[in-house]
Amino acid sequence: MSLTLRTISREQHLAYIRSLPSASHMQVPAWADVKSEWRNESMGWYDSYGKLVGVGLVLYRQLPKVKRYLAYMPEGPVINWYAPNLEDWLQPMLAHLKAQGAFSVKMGPPVVIRRWDAKAIKAGIQNPEVKRLRDVEATFLEPRAFEVSDKLRRMGWQQDEDEGAGFGDVQPRYVFQIPLAGRTLEQVHKEFNQLWRRNIKKAEKAGVQVVRGGYDDLPQWQQLYEVTAERDKFRPRPLGYFQQMWNALNAETAQRGDEPRMRLYFALHEGEAVAAATMLVVGGHVWYSYGASANHKREVRPSNAMQWQMLRDAHAMGAQVYDMRGIGDSLEDTDHLFGLIQFKVGTGGEAAEYLGEWDFPLNKLLHKALDIYMSRR
């Protein structure tokens, strides 16, 4: 199959995404408006009949003082990754990006290598000899993903072997997901562990209410988010980022009368917001994106109540999967990310390992300079 690649309009890009069961929220055209400090482009692959068969959102970050760019496709591009002629998809892309002034290309194939169900993860946590998720036998393996990996290496794509362990990549390599396709809410709830079910009941008894917020409630979200950032020692994004995200993503769906792309949830106790979260929706894929909680009233379990409501809403929308996003791959309780996997595994879902992010140096000297700069940051 001969493929050609060219710049496409946002309308063509969005129409293609809407024709799919789902795609990453970082590959919809509006994500370019969220990342407005990057130059952006929508690319389209066409087959020999002139039919659009793949798309990619590229973000270009300029090097200081020179007109050369890092071309980045977060969780993309959206192509047939299992195609036997993968080179025919990626070679025109590299040529196109080089012509656009890119010195290096970074992409994140949305390809899952393996999955572990909650039972396997729990057994791994209890086994003192097991240190990492990769040491646990996978419940599901995708042999085609290993073929993709081999093809990329043969084509000259590079990946740091340690990259992606936990949060080594720009986007998480390990995520936690709750499958919803073909399952009733009762079946989903039944898979929760005893602690989760008890905490949901406790929140209900304490009178915790979960409500949806709107754009005007984002400052309230920000307050809780900054409390969380201080407690968990990470640098928070500014309020303007979430306002921009809300406007950009929801404008994209509002034009067509679709479900809002971004939602905001609050857990209230005695009228006070004590937990909050953002949700993102693309087709049948729903993400719990950012979470926040107060330092007090944690005993009424607002986060559990909020997650359960978000899950119910995702199910009501007909979502195929509820994605709780990143986890670390360490199963040792001394690791700072261990609490994250412990909290999420209680939902009875599954951990998934993606192929991770890959780099192609179009200019080896500039690529190396970028590597050195990034390692010193």
TrEMBL record:
Transmembrane segments: none annotated. Keywords: Acyltransferase, Cell shape, Cell wall biogenesis/degradation, Peptidoglycan synthesis, Transferase. It comes from the Bacteria. One of its GO terms (molecular function) is aminoacyltransferase activity. GO terms for biological process: cell wall organization; peptidoglycan biosynthetic process; regulation of cell shape. Coiled coil: none annotated. Belongs to the FemABX family. This is Peptidoglycan bridge formation glycyltransferase FemA/FemB family protein. It comes from Streptomyces lonarensis.
